[in-house]
Amino acid sequence: MSHGHAKSTSKRPVAKAFKIIVEKHADGYVAYPLGLKGVVVGEGDTYEQALADVKSAIRCHVETFGAQVLEVESPVLEAFVAAAEVPT
C-alpha cells in the first residue's frame, strides 16, 4: 500500500544569508549588511533591535528595488575588523 504525500506548491521566500556589521555607539547600535547594492542601515537601543531593524530594512530594500540589488559581482566571503594608525 502506498502512502502519497502531497507536496506543498506554495512558494516560500528564499532566505539569503548576509554578513552584517553591528557597531556599538554611546547612544545605541547601528547595523548594515555587506555585499548589497545600495545603502541599507538599521539601528536600535540593543544589538538585537539593530539586527532586527536591518533585516527589515533589507527586505524593504529588495521589495523596492528588486532582486538585482542582491546580484553583486564579488560576494563577501569573510569580514574582518582591523585597527590601523593613519597619520592625519
Structure at a glance:
By secondary structure, this protein is α+β, with helices and mostly antiparallel strands.
Radius of gyration from CA coordinates: 18 Å
Structural class computed from helices and strand pairing: alpha+beta
**H/E series, N to C?**
EEEH
- Binned strand content: 15-25%
Q: State the major sheet.
A: 3 strands, antiparallel
Helix content: 10-25%
Number of helices: 1
- Between the first and last Cα atoms, what is the distance in angstroms? 79 Å
The count of DSSP E runs of length 2 or more, i.e. the number of strands, is 3
| Order of the strands making up the biggest sheet | 1-2-3
Which ranges are low-confidence, i.e. pLDDT below 50, for 5 or more consecutive residues? Answer: none
- The average pLDDT is 88
Shape, please? globular
Describe the structure.
The protein has 88 residues and is of the alpha+beta class. 22% of the residues lie in helices and 17% in strands. It has a three-stranded antiparallel sheet with strand order 1-2-3, with helices on one face. Strand 2 (28-33) and strand 3 (42-44) form a beta hairpin. The chain is globular and about 50 Å long. The model has no long low-confidence stretch (mean pLDDT 88).
Features:
globular, three-stranded antiparallel beta sheet, 88 residues, alpha+beta, 22% helix
Topology of helices and strands:
Elements: E1 20-25, E2 28-33, E3 42-44, H1 47-65
Antiparallel strand pairs: 1-2, 2-3
